[in-house]
Structures are given as C-alpha cells and as structure tokens.
Specification:
Helix content is 25%, strand content 31%. It is of the alpha/beta class. It has a 6-stranded mixed beta sheet with strand order 3-4-2-1-5-6, with helices on both faces. The longest helix has 12 residues.
Length: 91
C-alpha cells in the first residue's frame, strides 16, 4: 500500500526528502508540503501545494516527514496541532 506523505519544510533538506520519496514512488506519495514561511503558503513546489501547518487537521495523510535543522521546534508545533503519532524524523 502506498503511504501518503507530507513533508515539513520546503528548504534544502525537505527537497532532498522529496527526491528520495519520488525514487520510491511505489512506497510513498508526497501529497503536499507544510511550511511556516507565510510567503510560501498557497504556492507550489514540485507541483505539490504548500500549506501552513495549521491546516494539517484538514489533510488526509499517513505520515509527516521532518528534516532539517529545526526539527525540535517543528515537532513541538505539530504535536500541539495534531494527535497523530505517525511522524518520521530525518536529520
């Protein structure tokens, strides 16, 4: 079964995660991005929508993948927003 993935962060590390996910397209489907940068909200990156983390509860996904240097802050932020435990951390 293909897992629906959300990537937190549109920066260098997030794009690297995206490239790894598309190599494994039989396992993962990146459905969108979430990012704290207001300027990126409602735009697209690699043809995938970018949302504010506050919209996370309206999205249907299996896992969130965190990467980059702000992982601790991102985790705290997401844990306040959602109760889901399906989180991956790549650092």
């Amino acid at each position: 079964m293909i897992k629906k993935i959300i990537i937190f962060g549109c920066g260098f590390h997030g794009r690297a995660v995206f490239r790894n996910c598309i190599k494994k397209k039989k396992q993962y489907n990146v459905i969108c991005w979430i990012d704290n940068n207001i300027k990126k909200e409602n735009k697209k990156l690699f043809k995938k929508n970018i949302y504010n983390p506050k919209k996370l509860n309206k999205l249907k996904y299996d896992y969130i993948i965190f990467s980059g240097r702000n992982i601790k802050y991102q985790l705290k932020q997401i844990q306040k927003i959602t109760k889901k435990k399906k989180l991956y951390i790549l650092g």
